[in-house]
Amino acid sequence: MTTTPTTPADITPTARPGAPGTSPREPEDRRARTRRRQLTALVIALLVVASTTYFLISAEQSRSSGRDKQAESSATGLQDGWPSKMKRRIYEVPIPGGAKDVAYFETSNWKSSRLYVQFTTSAAGLDTYLRRSGTSRSALDHGDITVSARDTRIVGWDFTGTGRDWAGATETNPDPRPTRDITVDLTDPAVPRVYVVSTTTP
Predict the structure, then answer these.
(1) Nearest to 200 by CA among 177, 183, 167
(2) CA angle 140, 112, 58 (to 5 degrees)
């Protein structure tokens, strides 16, 4: 019996573990890498969406705030209600507690800012207001209307009525503190009506 010799070409090579292209873990590794890339892309997309949403909301809030301030500044006439504590502090207009019919209006430009305030108070309330403003009744000149004609037109005040007992004073302060024109209607001493224009300059 003749045996045919085996040649190297007749031997089918056996795959070695770990040889390139033959590892059974390679498909799993590819899937894991694909999942990581997909997850990274998703995270980036979410971050972009979140950032865009934040900026859009911030921009809208800024526009709304600007519109509110513009509407307040461009409104014609006085606004019913109390000015904010910050405005009262900046313009040094200490409205006494219990004041009624309070209204205000603010204007601003590159030269100056003004706060117009009116309110009705009691005799004691007037004394409190004047004291907190750094003045007193003795500083009020009877018959003197210290609010200018220009300021009167801006807010529609009327100081022309006959038979009214007007008294006024101007409190001048060095910058940056405001200068205040105070005019009081003392026709009924029990319920004086106060008109104030406080002006600040940059």
Answers:
(1) 177
(2) 125
CB atoms inside a 10 Å sphere around CB 193: 19
pLDDT band at 91 (very low <50, low <70, confident <90, very high): very high
Rounded CA-CA distance 111/68 in Å is 22
Of the CA atoms within 13 Å of residue 48, those in its CB half-sphere come to: 6
On whether the pTM is more than 0.85, the answer is no
Distance CA(17)–CA(22), nearest Å, equals 7
Q: What is the Cα–Cα distance from 195 to 172, expressed in whole angstroms?
A: 16
Average pLDDT over residues 101-124: 96
CB-based contact 105:77 (threshold 8 Å): yes
- How many C-beta atoms surround the C-beta of residue 3 within 10 A? 5
Q: Are 199 and 113 in contact (CB under 8 A)?
A: yes
Q: Which residue has the higher pLDDT, 75 or 117?
A: 117
- Residue 6 CA to residue 196 CA, distance in Å, equals 118
Rounded to 5 degrees, φ, ψ at 131 are -65, -45
Distance (Å, whole) CA 127 – CA 192: 10
